[in-house]
Amino acid sequence: MVPVPPSARPGFDLDAAYAVEATLKQWREAAGHRAVGRKVGYANKAMWRALKLETLVWAHMYDDTVHYSDSNSAALTLAQSRSLKVEPEIVFGLKQPVTGEASDAASALASADWLAIGFEIIDCPFPDWKFQPSDFVASFGLHAALVVGERMQVRPDLIATLVNQLAQFKVRVSKHREFIEEGSGRNSLKSPALCLSELSAAIARRFPTEPLTAREIVSSGTLTPGHPAGKGDVWTVAVEGLPLPPLTLTLL
To answer: Which of 35, 140, 175, 177 is deepest in the core (most CB within 10 A)?
Structure first.
């Protein structure tokens, strides 16, 4: 645990946090791991106002933290965890750089090869889950793992339908088959597709030489609040309004 978050230090702003995040990425790559995509934080404009953010924030994910389920069921062991939570999210796999404006869901989807429901597992090193956006960025985006469910191809003829579905679909999260909470695509910037386009635009403004590229994976923000999780838990997320099967995650 980190008893005093970096944001408590004078001058530790988002610029400093992204410099830390870049150094962490260099260290991970030097250790033989590959960055495979990015995860989103604060995909909620109400939080932007409260935290004086201009846009969402992000951090990298890696080849040893992103996992693909077998028949929509996955079992995962997370060593050295501190304070885990699980979050259901829509995950995109890109086939080309994202183009268009930050409000252009259709253009964002045209850049996607596939989408899936996923569980992101986050882990917070700060007491009582109290942190600022700069702490989030400088701590791997709290990213511990991502489990990706069955992937649905984003065909050109489906994009218009998906624009509507992604703004309206619902998810139901259960633990040990007992209902926990319902969420919606609207909880991720009114649509995960809009979250993808906003992420692309935000990265282009801050790091124009490091845009989202083909084959990157994007975890587009939680659809419900995160729920505390631990060893022995069995979590399931069911999707209504998108042709995606339920995904089950067991924490070992």
So the answer is: 140
Q: Which amino acid is at 247?
A: L
d(CA 149, CA 154): 15
Confidence at 234, pLDDT banded by 50, 70, 90: very high
Residue 63, CA distances (Å) to 25, 32, 124, 159, 182 in order: 12, 10, 20, 28, 30
User: Residue 249 phi/psi, 5° resolution?
Assistant: -125, 125
Residue 125 DSSP one-character state: -
Sign of CA dihedral 134, 225, 252, 74: negative
Can you point out the beta strands (E) in 27-161?
35-41, 57-62, 66-68, 73-76, 84-94, 112-123, 143-148, 152-153
Q: Which of the four pLDDT bands, split at 50, 70 and 90, describes residue 153?
A: very high
Amino acid at 103: S
List, in sequence order, every residue forming a beta bridge with 57; answer none if it has no partner.
Answer: 41
- In the predicted structure, residue 110 carries a pLDDT above the cut 90: yes
CA distances 159 to 23, 42, 216, 220, 221, Å, are: 37, 25, 19, 17, 20
Collapse the DSSP code of 248 into the 3-class scheme (helix H, G, I; strand E, B; otherwise coil) and give the result: strand
How many Å apart are CA 200 and CA 113, to the nearest integer? 16
Q: What are phi and psi of 54, to 5 degrees?
A: -95, -20
The answer to whether residues 158 and 32 touch, using CB atoms and an 8 Å cutoff, is no
